[in-house]
Protein: Secretory subunit
Organism: Desmophyllum pertusum
Amino acid sequence: MAGAQFEYDEKGTTFYYFLISFFGIVLVPLTYYVLKITKLPDDQKRTVKICRCPPCVEKRALLRKKEPKSKGIRYISLAVLAVLWVLFFIGAYKTSQFEKDFAEYDPYALLEIDRGATIADIRRQYRRLSMQYHPDKDTGDSQKFMRIAKAYEALTNEESRKNWEEHGNPDGPGATSFGIALPSWLVSKENSMWVLGAYGLAFMVILPIAVGTWWYKSIQYSCEQILLDTTQLYYYFFHKTPSMQTKRVLMILAGSLEFEKGHNNEVQERPSDNVELPELMRDLANLGDKNKEPPLCYPYSIKARALIHAHLSRLELPRFTLKSDLDLVLQKSPFLIQEMVSCVGQLIAMAKAGRTTNQPRLETIENCMRTSQMMVQGLWDNKSPLLQLPHLNQDNLRHFTTKKRSVRSIRQLASMKDEDRRALLRNLTGEQYEDVINVCSMFPVIDMVVKPHVLDDEDNAGLITTGSIVTVSVTVKRRNLGEFFEEEHVDEIGNLPPLESVHPNDTVEPKGSPQPGGQKVWQKNKKKGKKAKPQKQQPKKKPVKQQPKKKTSLEEKE
């Protein structure tokens, strides 16, 4: 039989050599990967000033709830890795204790003599050992005597010595047998059914199911882990509407299939949504719930849109229902908005190549990027950036714009002297003021240097001729506003005008009519309509002033 030609490892030593080698090949890169993912990033090792406002406290509490899972996974991974290394060293030690089945033939060792010994020394040593181990002697050993005689012949006979030096054997080249590094019990008749069943289960059931499941999921997502159906949805709407406003971008973002139960198992559909969502939608204006475009009119899209509008309007949501749904929307939004920008960029490239007619405008990309900023800040784009700071609301902002000062940005607030800033925020307690300073110090200051040039241009004058391929080099340096607190020169952070000091007894006269924080959105739209009345009276005055000019022109013609 063909199977009789193979020899399997009866003792198991060869199999253990193979197992330890394969185990080491897998364990070394696995150790590098585990240590890399379990290493804490540098930004987590640094001590960061924290904010003690209620939203930040709640956010840190939620993060701490997730930390045990990540810490547990980290500790379990390190423990499993340590156990694997211990098993590897134990296996390597036991493997080193196995008796060698093949030993190199050494006649010098058999004669118990050094390798540099002469022929006379070899003969003298042979006579001494033969007298000791000869079978006729009381101390004789026939097998030992035969090995000594063969070793003596290998060192004294020229032909035997040549065979030993060339082939390692004084008798000449011999047959070498090699076996398969598998234990014999694996191919024995008693275990054949079990082994065959294990192979069939592993390679005919588990492997096809695993590969099929992975393939079915992978074909639904792009390389950025965005659903391909969502990407096609973006292409359709951005091609349909080349110039898209911010609220339209929000509407398309809410229509992403990542928020639909059939495409994402993380989405929760509760009976309480039928009660809570209509109440929330009544507090939101310009929601666009009357839109009839699919899938923008589907329930999942309207729900996600209402949650996004509530987030930007900073409305309170039920903690265990809509608030958890909003967390999922906010978790997916940065990646979806990035996919939007990518789709618009590809449509522009296709339009430049003549493959499509409707080229998206630059405003569309800007509105997509602005949407990302709005989602991170939790503010509409027409709101003051100062509302990002804790403990500040619309009532506080009316003190920031008066006849004596005009503080409209966080950078301007950071550039003020500490006593002036404390006087401006005198309605805050000491802890609240410290929270404002801590958050303010973490805001970035970006210094950007833009240099357009032509690569490999022999003319160093910086001139750009027609038809040249221009390369724009942008150098960005990021710093924090905390570096500029209490600095005397404001010019270093943006050439800001000097701000006068603020005293608690100063009377504050706000500019414009700021809206209180609790007002509804539709009430703000009504006030915009009232401001349009004086603008209609201005064009009526112009023809009255122009009448005498028309008369003078007629008199000159006559």
Summary: Strands lie at 8-9, 180-183, 444-453, 471-480.
